[in-house]
Amino acid sequence: MKRIQVGGKAIGRSGQPLICTPVIGRSRAAVLDELAALLPKAPDLIEWRVDFFEGFGDIAAVIDMAREIKAAAGTIPVVFACRAMGEGGGFSALNESDVVKLYVAACVSRCIDIIDYEMSNSPVNVAMLREVSRENGVAMIMSYHNHEFTPSDEELSGRFIEAEVLGADIAKVVVMPKGEEDVLALLSATLKASRVCGIPLVSMSMGGLGTVARVFGWVFGSSMTFGFGKHCSAPGQMSIEELRPVLASVQHAVYGG
Amino acid sequence: MKRIQVGGKAIGRSGQPLICTPVIGRSRAAVLDELAALLPKAPDLIEWRVDFFEGFGDIAAVIDMAREIKAAAGTIPVVFACRAMGEGGGFSALNESDVVKLYVAACVSRCIDIIDYEMSNSPVNVAMLREVSRENGVAMIMSYHNHEFTPSDEELSGRFIEAEVLGADIAKVVVMPKGEEDVLALLSATLKASRVCGIPLVSMSMGGLGTVARVFGWVFGSSMTFGFGKHCSAPGQMSIEELRPVLASVQHAVYGG
Question: Which residue of A has its CA nearest to B206?
Fold first, then answer.
């Protein structure tokens, strides 16, 4: 699997998962507060969840906020993500065409490093955003979210591969387990895909049961895990403070400490 | 799955894995040193690995040592385990019939709480030790160790069930993974067996790769994990000090902290 560089950060299987921290403030002030709280915790990446931002309907307000986030984040790469309600999104009521315009504006502004876009959206939009992001030097995560259940191992592997075929820089699969076997299916699918895909993978199993994937996903080929700074953005997320020492201990054990 | 009581300690799936700590001192002095170092760390159980003890050929010396261990351990249950070389044992060169005599003496002395005996030994010996242990109020773990590789998911589930059929109080499966999929097979087998077995299960995947099973096995039905006090007794074991905060953090996350 190839490693990619985004804003000076290497993303890709390296035996050490990157910690990405979501920013989900509703107002500009809340976003700045959140950044002030989480930046000292030195996450590897920041994911701005635009769908939680009250200004999401105003492109200029969104780009202004993105610029402020980027300025605060410094060398930490910023992921721009706007999820629909069905993908676990915030209170965004934008239609898909408005969401696409936001993504385009974010790419063109070049004040974010990565966009994260759902691969099940219209193929025309996926292809267009792939082109616009590439032209502007912005990396693209193509993601598959399922907040209801965990599809089969085979279907999940297929999603990673689909993202690569569609031209993603990073393939991401996030699913909800209903039982312990679903977590094993997600890990198994990640492992299998990691052996055939040429791009970095990110996978996550949500909720309490999914904790094993948040802590050990990197052993099975996931390049990134999520830890919250101030507010949790998905069920089962651990805080950076809890996650970091756990990751350090288990890495020590895995590498024969 | 039923929970069992051993020396006042509840063993069985309860959403919280017990930490068992091995004692592998070669001499009486080394064993006492080890106990002095590990008892303040409050393990849930102690496993005395008799095969590492230089006096293993002398039944009286073994029983004297067991009495001293039990006296030091107080209310912490003591597991008596003598593994052959092929099962990851120490330097024991006893033949099976001498080993069985040691186990019988340990049961009759009633100074240990649990014996751990390999289920692949002669069925006559397994049945006899089951009887002797039961008559003396000693619990019996029937175990399957494979230090070479990890058999299939189905074979591993079968081992847990076999132990229950043979009358074990606890079924234990410890295997060596060659790849990440082997760890998933062990977890999957534990999960499946936990849904059909009526006795507590213990499972472990060794080495660095197996760390995920040491930390998260309890989510998939394993009642016990191993953490060392002073010396590691199997590849991949974490120390109690490392293991305990990791278990606390991941339990917090699993239960929706």
Answer: A254
Contacts of B254 in chain A (CB under 8 A): 208-209, 211
* Strand A45-49 to A4-6 pairing: unpaired
Section B97-115 average pLDDT: 96
Nearest-angstrom CA–CA distance, A48 and A71: 13
Task: Give CA–CA dist A77/A70, Å, rounded.
Answer: 8
Q: What is the pLDDT of residues A215-249, one digit of tens each?
A: 999 999 999 999 998 777 777 789 999 999 999 99
Nearest CA-CA partner of A82 in A111, A110, A102 = A102
Give the residue from A61, A51, A54 showing the smallest Cα distance to A84. A51
| pLDDT higher than 70, residue A186 | yes
B172 is catalytic: yes
Q: Where are the beta strands (DSSP E) in chain B?
A: 4-6, 9-11, 18-23, 45-49, 78-81, 114-118, 139-146, 170-175, 201-205, 224-228, 238-239
Distance CA A84, CA B46 (A): 52
Complex confidence, ipTM: 0.92
A140 close to A121: Cβ distance less than 8 angstroms: no
pLDDT in tens, B126-162: 999 999 999 999 999 999 999 999 999 999 999 999 9
Q: Encoding tokens for residue A63?
A: 């780009």
Q: Residue B17 carries which DSSP code?
A: P
Nearest residue to A51 via CA among A11, A2, A103, A4: A103
| Mean pLDDT in residue range B108-136 | 97
CATH says B17-251 is which class? alpha beta
* C-alpha–C-alpha distance, residues B229 and B254, integer Å: 26
Residues B188, A181: C-beta atoms closer than 8 Å: yes
- Interface contact A242-B252, CB threshold 8 A: yes
**Shortest Cα distance, chain A CAs vs residue B161, angstroms:** 19
Distance CA A190, CA A222 (A): 7
- Tell me which residue has tokens 């019939």: B97
Q: Which two tokens stand for residue A28?
A: 């500009």
The whole-angstrom distance between A25's CA and the closest CA on chain B is 21
A77-95, pLDDT tens digit by residue? 999 999 876 666 666 667 8
Which residues, at least 6 apart from A2, have a Cβ–Cβ distance to it below 8 Å?
A: A12, A198, A199, A200
Q: Is A252 a catalytic residue?
A: no
Closest chain B CA to residue A245: B246
What is the average pLDDT across A184-191? Answer: 98
